[in-house]
Every structure is written in C-alpha cells, then in structure tokens.
User: Which sequence fits this backbone?
C-alpha cells in the first residue's frame, strides 16, 4: 500500500504541465530588476564618494601656510641646481679669462733688458695671464648666480627666507675651525655641498666625527 500511495504522487508531480512551472520562477524574475536597480544605485553612490576621499588626500590643495613656506627637500634641490649653474658658468669664464690674458699679454713685446719691477717681463706677463684666469674663476659664480636668479624670480622671496633659516642651522651645528689640524680638516664649513636631506644628515655626521676626533687629539695632548 505504501508503494501504491507514493506512486501516484510521483506521477502527479511529473504530470504537472510545464506551463505551471514558470510561476515558481516568476517571482524571482520579477525581483531581478529591483536588485539590479539597487546595485546600480550603490555603485553610483560609491563612485560619487571617490572624489571626496581623493580631495582630502594627494589631490588636496596646499594651505596658505604651505604656500608661504618652501619645503626643505625642494629648497635643497633648488640650492643644488644653483651650485651647478655657478659651476657650469665658472669653467668657461675661467677659460675665457685665460685665453684673453694670452691673447693680450702674448702679443706684447718683451725686452729682457727692460725688466718690470726688477723682474723678467716674461714672468710678469705669465703671472698677469694667470691673474686673468683667476679673475674669470671669481666672476664665473657671480654670473651663474645672476642667471639662476633670473630663472627663479617667482620663488626668490621663499628661497631667501629658507636661506636665512638654513644659515642659522649651519652656524648652530658646524664645528669650531680652530680645532682643525692637518689630519683633521674642517668638513664643509659653510655647508656648500649640501643638496638634499640625506646630504644634510651626512654633514651632521661629519661634524660629529670631527668633534670626536678633535676631542681625542686634545685629550692626548
């Protein structure tokens, strides 16, 4: 009897027409537009929130205080470029002074019987030629600095402000030059070689090494 009762139900289940089955899935099909619309709204809301987050991050505009102060990393990089400008102009200025001295003093007549300040004219003219080269060496950094200032006119006020602060740091942390010796020279007394934060830290370490070495020499004496 159990098998006879179970068999009709199974046959009835199979005997259901296929047209009645989609009614079971119709509810799920009617829900999919609602779910898709809610998902679309959530993605739009998420996309709309992205600019707000990025505006407070790297894309944020600097404040007024940041605009009035030049970052140290940028200042030291600008200072390094300034030194390169001065070096780039010093080399041709020195060469120009040397060749100018040769072209002028080399064409002068030299009479060994008429010394200049009781010195052979050849030595005098040679020294004058080297003096012209030295003059070019001194004038070169001035010309390079002037050209560099023309290219950084907008930042000159901020750069000069950082120059004063940088000079105060150098004066505060540099060593006493009276403690130097032949084996322990002063390491970059004016901080001219500093071109980055890493270079500044290395400069501080060099100053500390100089102090320790000078203290060791003084204790031995």
Assistant:
């Amino acid at each position: 009897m159990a098998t006879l009762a179970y068999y009709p139900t199974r046959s009835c289940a199979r005997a259901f027409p296929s047209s009645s089955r989609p009614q079971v899935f119709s509810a799920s099909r009617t829900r999919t537009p609602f779910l898709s619309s809610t998902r679309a709204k959530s993605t739009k809301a998420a996309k709309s929130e992205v600019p707000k987050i990025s505006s407070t991050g790297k894309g944020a505009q600097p404040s007024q205080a940041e605009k009035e102060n030049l970052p140290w990393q940028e200042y030291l990089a600008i200072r390094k470029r300034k030194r390169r400008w001065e070096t780039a102009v010093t080399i041709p200025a020195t060469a120009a002074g040397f060749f100018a001295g040769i072209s002028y003093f080399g064409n002068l007549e030299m009479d060994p019987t008429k010394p200049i300040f009781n010195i052979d004219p050849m030595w005098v003219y040679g020294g004058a030629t080297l003096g012209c080269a030295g003059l070019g060496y001194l004038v070169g950094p001035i010309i390079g600095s002037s050209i560099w200032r023309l290219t950084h006119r907008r930042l000159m006020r901020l750069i000069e402000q950082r120059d004063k602060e940088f000079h105060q740091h150098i004066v505060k942390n540099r060593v006493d030059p009276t403690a130097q010796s032949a084996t322990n020279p002063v390491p970059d007394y004016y901080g001219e070689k500093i071109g980055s934060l890493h270079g500044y830290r290395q400069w501080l370490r060099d100053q500390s090494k100089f102090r320790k070495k000078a203290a060791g020499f003084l204790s031995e004496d």
